[in-house]
Structure formats: C-alpha cells, structure tokens
Amino acid sequence: MGGGIAAYKACEVLRRLTESGHEVRVVPTEAALRFVGAATFEALSGNPVRTGVFADVPEVPHVRLGQEADLVLVVPATANVLAKAANGLADDLLTNTLLTARCPVLMVPAMHTEMWEHAATRDNVATLRRRGVVVAEPASGRLTGADTGKGRLPDPGEIVDLARLLLRRPDALPRDLEGRRVVVSAGGTREPLDPVRYLGNRSSGKQGYALARTAVQRGATVTLVSAATVALPEVAGAELVRAGTAEELRSAMHEAAKGADILVMAAAVADFRPTERAEYKIKKTDHDPRPIALTRNPDILAELVEARAEGQVIVGFAAETGDDSGDVLEHARAKLKRKGCDLLVVNAVGEGKAFETEDNAGWLLSADGSERAVELGSKSYMASDIWDAVVAFIEA
C-alpha cells in the first residue's frame, strides 16, 4: 500500500476481501501509515502490520510474504511505488515483497492527473506491464482538493472484482486489446407507459459492465452505452454514454459504432414499447384497465450487423429459457443465424440465473459453427472468456 490520500479506500477493499474468505496481509509503506493507522489494518485483516525488513527477522518476511502469496495487490499504487517497482528498488517491506513475488501482481494507481500523465510514470507503467504486472487504469473524477481528472482510485468493488478474477485465472488480463476501440452496451431499456410507469426487464447491467471493465484492463479504448436500469459505479477508464429507451440505445450504439473495431450488444433491449405514452399518470379506477397497445422496437443488433464497417467484429447476447419448440441452445443457434453476428453469448435465464446475479455461466457460439461452454464464475470471469474468443476470432 502506497502513501496517498486514497489509502482510506483500501480499508473497504480489505474488508471485502476478508469477508469473502481470503487471508490478507497488509504491507503498507511508512507514508501510507500517515493516512491510515496500523491498528485499522490489523483489526480488519486479523494480522500484524509491518513496514520494515528488520521486524520479525527470523521469519524473513521480506522473502516469505512474496513467496507465499497467491496475489499481490497494491492499492493505492502511487507514482513513487510504481517508480520503485519498475526500477527494482527494495528499500522497505512492500518493495521487497514485490521483488520476491512470483504470483500475479495487480497495481491500482491513484495520483494527480499531471503525475499519471508524466512521461516518467508512463514509462514505468509500460515497463511493469511488459513484465506481466497488471497495472489497472485509474478512474476520472474528483481528486485532492478541488482538482478533477484522471488518476482517481477506481471503486473498491471494481478493485476486488479484478483481484478475484486474477486469483481464479492469473492470465485473465493480457494487453491483447491495445489499439482496439470497443463499444459495449449494458443494462435493460425502459419503455415509458406514463410519467411514472414503464415496461422493462430484470437486467442489472453487471455482465456488460464486466465486459467493459475487463476490456479496459486488456488495453482497449472503451465506450460503455449504459441503459436506464443500471445503478452501478462507473467503469474506470471507459467513456460512459447513458441511454434510456430502446430508441435512445439504438441512436447511441449507431453513433458509437463509427470507427469501432468491436461491438458487444450485451444490453437487454425491450422487444416492444407502448404505442402511446400517456401524458399524465394513469389513474386507478373502478373500471377494468384499458389494454395497452404495443409496437415492435427496432432490432438493434441486426441493424448494427447490416451497417457494420469492413473488419468490424460484432458480438450478440441471447437470454433463453427454452420452450416446447426447442431448448436453449436450439433457440440460440437459430438466433445466431438470423442475426448474422460473429459470436453469440448464450445465457439460460430464469430464477437465480444470469439476471440480477453476481455469477454467470453459458455458451459461446461462433458463426463458423463452433460452440463451447463457459463454466460458472464471476461475470468478469465470463467476460475474460468472451474477450479470449473475440481475440481468437480476430486472429484466425
């Protein structure tokens, strides 16, 4: 842990990791302890906190911590810590641990914009990434004092999600999307009935946000088109575009698609919308309710496929339950053929499946006829599998 004002947010990261069953040892710098005291970290982790290499010498902590770790997470990673790590300096327990670690290392920067954009910092980040260290993209927003800009520590939940992903799959975040422009839609649209009510669906947007998050960390320039039902923290490093109705999502996706290399339609778009929207709230009366006339919404995925530029890769999503006419995969295969996209992610939906859950599973179908299952895991775990498939499709 580096010595920056964002150190207080590390307490929430620590709490979430320990509550999910992980054994955590906190290794702060002396500067970090000027922001948050050792007692706080010891209480949250249940382990002693040390900063120097001469404490508890018989246990050789400057070697043992790195050797025994499954993941080293540096949050916040200040410009100073990044510089020391890139140059192999080891003048405290944290930097010694970084040198002895052979597990995945995730460094989450937090600093002022000018420091993040300085050539020295950019060179240090590039060096660390070349060596296989995952250096997360910082968020944009309020910094110390009245300053705003890029360099803000990402939301603690996002940091924990990336840590969990690397613990399960250490190779999940290669920099294989660098130079690619990616557009991801997420969430569920809302189609107004009146100023109060709407037709919607149960999509939380978590899978789309996970796709955007992992794409950013794999080096892509990401635009996230987020539908109205999403109430999630913004994805660090991604451009956010808000959309409410299917028509708004349609316009946003067509605009964002210009010049994009990869489009992912993860949003759950309402198939129908009310033909008319009441100007005032529909009142409850003693009479039977008036039937609601519906009209079909545009097929955004099909439109994007038809309008796509040469070489543009398009990924669709299918939420299926199966019925008397076919099972989930049979319906998905028909949809892939009908839509004409390159890849189709298939989710079996229902109570406790896909929508409004933390984990996900499904299948990946390709236009070349290949199919494979994606085992149950976090939505970021599924996202990493999807990006693997996209990269393989591009390189084929």
UniProtKB/TrEMBL annotation:
A GO BP entry: pantothenate catabolic process
Binding-site residues, CTP: 271, 281, 298-301, 317, 335, 339
One Gene Ontology cellular component: phosphopantothenoylcysteine decarboxylase complex
Enzyme Commission code: 4.1.1.36, 6.3.2.5
Highest rank taxon of the organism: Bacteria
Molecular function GO labels: FMN binding; metal ion binding; phosphopantothenate--cysteine ligase activity; phosphopantothenoylcysteine decarboxylase activity
Annotated spans, Phosphopantothenate--cysteine ligase: 182-396
Domain Flavoprotein as annotated: residue spans: 2-161
Known pathway: Cofactor biosynthesis; coenzyme A biosynthesis; CoA from (R)-pantothenate: step 3/5; Cofactor biosynthesis; coenzyme A biosynthesis; CoA from (R)-pantothenate: step 2/5
Cofactor: Mg(2+); FMN
Segments of this protein annotated with the region Phosphopantothenoylcysteine decarboxylase: 1-181
PANTHER family, per the entry: HOMO-OLIGOMERIC FLAVIN CONTAINING CYS DECARBOXYLASE FAMILY, PHOSPHOPANTOTHENOYLCYSTEINE DECARBOXYLASE
Classification via NCBIfam families: coaBC_dfp
Family, as annotated: In the C-terminal section; belongs to the PPC synthetase family.
Name by which UniProt lists this protein: Coenzyme A biosynthesis bifunctional protein CoaBC
Source organism of this protein record: Actinophytocola xanthii
Origin organism lineage: Bacteria, Bacillati, Actinomycetota, Actinomycetes, Pseudonocardiales
Gene name as annotated: coaBC
